[in-house]
Amino acid sequence: MSIESHLVENRIFQPSREFSKAARIGDLAEYRKLYKASIADPEKFWAKQAAKLRWQKDWTKVLQWKCPFAKWFVGGKLNVTENCLDRHLEGARRNKAAIIWEGEPGEKRTLTYHQLHREVCKFANVLKRNNIKKGDRVLIYMPLVPEASIAMLACARIGAVHSVVFGGFSAESIKDRLADCGAQVVITADGGYRRGQMVTLKQNVDRAIEGNAAIRRVIVFKRANLDIHIAEGRDVWWHREMDYVTADCPALGFDSEHPLFILYTSGSTGKPKGILHTTGGYLLGAQFTTKTIFDLREDDVYWCTADVGWITGHTYLVYGPLANGATCLMYEGAPNWPEPDRFWKLIADYGVTILYTAPTAIRAFIKWGDEWPAKHDLSSLRLLGTVGEPINPEAWMWFREKIGGSRCPIVDTWWQTETGAIMITPLPGATPTTPGTATLPFFGIDAAIVDDAGKELPANEGGKLVIRKPWPSMLRSIYGDKQRYKDQYWTEVKDCYFTGDGARRDEHGYFWITGRMDDVLNVAGHRLGTAEVESALVSHEAVAEAAVVGRPDEIKGQGVVAFVTLKTHAVVHADLKEILRKHVGEMIGPIAKPDDIRFADALPKTRSGKIMRRLLKEIAGGGGVTGDTTTLEDLSILAKLSKSDD
Ligand code: WT7
Q: What is the DSSP letter of 385?
């Protein structure tokens, strides 16, 4: 059965002539021509791009493909940090800002490429001094400070494999991930700042490794002047270690398929999966997509708001921008600290030109009110991007008008931890955009919508989103579990990578992502994407955010339950629930009308901002929450939601 799609969105926004004229890809015909060539011969296409990276030894074969196992640039050797750092020291970028950082309490630091290179080399020598070798796994659990990037890059410099665990995760999550990846070394900080509070990172690490003799070293960066426990013989201070080393650390070349990192997906279901990425292909994906999709210029101030704990932080805060010699803003804390205008203040203070953020953040901004961005001069912005979820047309329009001044193109970028880099996206100077669609596949990406049998579906029929050809930045496996990798991604549709997402293509070939397939509702035989019902709710003026789940229903198979948060200034009618039900009925059809609407102050989310529908499903079904809640951002939300059944 296909997924039905009812929401119609007709607004089209052309890239401005001014933007197109300066852009690398300046019109749609050019994109289509290049795309066609890239799909006709992907190996030729990728080889040409890869040649622009710095290799210490050339590859002998572009791709070795034994489905589902890929090797890219076989025989080639390179060092990721030579590409991200050393290369830029040779010319005008030497003294250019690489990272401009602001802490939540307001401290400011700038690291030039020269300085960043020095810090990375020194810390790489610290790792060596602590007997960390090529192939060893290193767990990084840090606040969003430059040292988080430095730790990652230092691992990459010596061929150690980093696994970053988001600083908002609990001791329990660290424990699971340590057990899975077998790291013997942890890099952390005493603490970090979040919404005016202290996050006790080192204490969490202590709890996670209590009694774990396998952990032989913990390196602690002093961020917050917290009084912490230092275990003699195991724990060392970052700054003390740095006193013992020089900045001389040659960038050895590693095999193109040498593992670069493992990143555990927050996955809203089941046990976390260690997504394994390797060196050459990943770097190429990161470098090339950042340059092309954000149309990076030498004088841009580029800000990706993601934490390094997510793939977005890996690819678009660290490896992608640095490989392009960009200036990146990095901000440690919460968007609403001390007030809800912190982001807009940062943009004005640093003259940010490119802003890449998440729909969930945009919906929060909408909820907090238009007066906050209105206070600041946002005219430096020239390009906006979103990632992480389908963006509701309502939020897209708000982002365009209130943040982009109706002037900046928006790139709604679809991709996954597994894909390593952006896969479906507009090109800002070429692709006419419409709110709610990630538009067209990126070069070399053979994306398609297929049915259960793997047959490509005609326009406007919903089905499974798959990728039919391997691409350089694809995951290579689930760490330590090839069988799970096969089962999870390569068995659903023959010879295709199955993304787990549902989508349709419209008559222009644009992709509309309807959400995770396992979030699909089945109401009286109709399959509805949760994203669509949520968009309909959010298009009502009182609603800030909505999450829709199914609950068992004797008659319809599934009933629709909506959890809704309202805007701060919303006018709440007594019969608002009925009004919203009618509104959804009008927008989509009576079949989608929620059977039950529950108002909430906040929705349960993972720390990356994904609504945890699995938990809402349990609540909607009337039972208690029994599943894993270790990735939940704020546990108190659950208790409140369970009670809101009025
Ligand atoms: C899932 C991947 C990749 C960076 C952050 C999330 C959803 C992501 C979009 C988008 C619609 C999107 C998909 C995807 N998603 N971007 N632009 N439009 N949906 O990484 O945690 O691996 O999640 O996020 O469902 O499968 P992730």
A: E
Tokens representing 226 are: 């917290």
Given a cut of 90, is residue 535 above it in pLDDT? no
Place of tokens 């597994």: 418
Mutate to test the pocket of ligand 1, among 414, 499, 614 (most ligand atoms within 8 A of CB): 414
pLDDT at residue 168 in the model:
83
Q: Which atom of ligand 1 is nearest to the CA of 422?
A: 3
Q: What is the pLDDT of residues 385-407, one digit of tens each?
A: 999 888 989 999 999 999 999 99
Six token digits for residue 238: 């970052």
Q: Which residue puts its alpha carbon closest to atom 11 of ligand 1?
A: 390
Distance CA 252, CA 624 (A): 53
**Ligand 1 atom, smallest distance to 413 CA:** 17
Quick check: 410 and 404 in contact, CB under 8 A?
A: yes
Q: Is residue 543 part of a domain?
A: yes
Q: What is the pLDDT of residue 567?
A: 92
Q: Of all protein residues, whose CA lies closest to atom 27 belonging to ligand 1?
A: 416
- In sequence order, what DSSP letters do the residues of 293-335 get, joined into one string? HTT--TT-EEEE---TTSHHHIIIIIIHHHHTT-EEEEE-S-T
Q: Per mean pLDDT, which of 222-231, 508-517, 551-560 is the most reliable?
A: 222-231
Residue carrying the six token digits 């809101």? 644
Q: What are the helix and strand counts (H, E) for the chain?
A: 21, 30
- Total structural domains within the chain: 1
Q: Where residue 204 falls among pLDDT bands split at 50, 70, 90?
A: very high
Q: How many CB atoms lie within 10 A of CB 238?
A: 20
Q: Tokens at residue 143, please?
A: 């606040």
3-state secondary structure of 623: coil
For residue 644, the model assigns a pLDDT of: 46
E strand or H helix that includes residue 264:
strand 259-264
Per-residue confidence at 643, pLDDT binned at 50, 70, 90? Answer: low
The pTM for the full model equals 0.88
Q: Is residue 569 part of a domain?
A: yes
| 217, burial (CB in 10 Å: exposed 0-12, middle 13-18, buried 19+) | middle
Distance 511 CA to ligand 1 centre (A): 13
User: What is the rounded end-to-end Cα distance, in angstroms, of the chain?
Assistant: 35
Query: Cα(101) to centroid of ligand 1, in Å?
Result: 26
CA 498 to chain centre: 18
Q: How far is the CA of 67 from the centre of ligand 1 (A)?
A: 24
Cα(612) to centroid of ligand 1, in Å?
A: 14
Assigned domain for 496 exists: no
Tell me whether residue 15 is in a domain: no
The span from the CA of 598 to the CA of 449, in Å, is: 34
In the predicted model, what is the mean pLDDT of the chain? 93
Q: In what order do the strands lie in the sheet with 596-599?
A: 543-553, 557-566, 596-599
Using the 8-state DSSP alphabet, how is residue 627 labeled?
Answer: S
Smallest CA-to-CA distance from 261 within 274, 273, 251 is with 274
Domain hosting 588: range is: 520-642
Please say whether the dihedral angle defined by the alpha carbons of residues 500, 503, 509 and 510, taken in this order, is positive or negative.
negative
**CB hemisphere CA count around 453 (13 angstroms):** 3
Mean pLDDT, residues 173-196 taken together:
94
CATH number at residue 622: 3.30.300.30
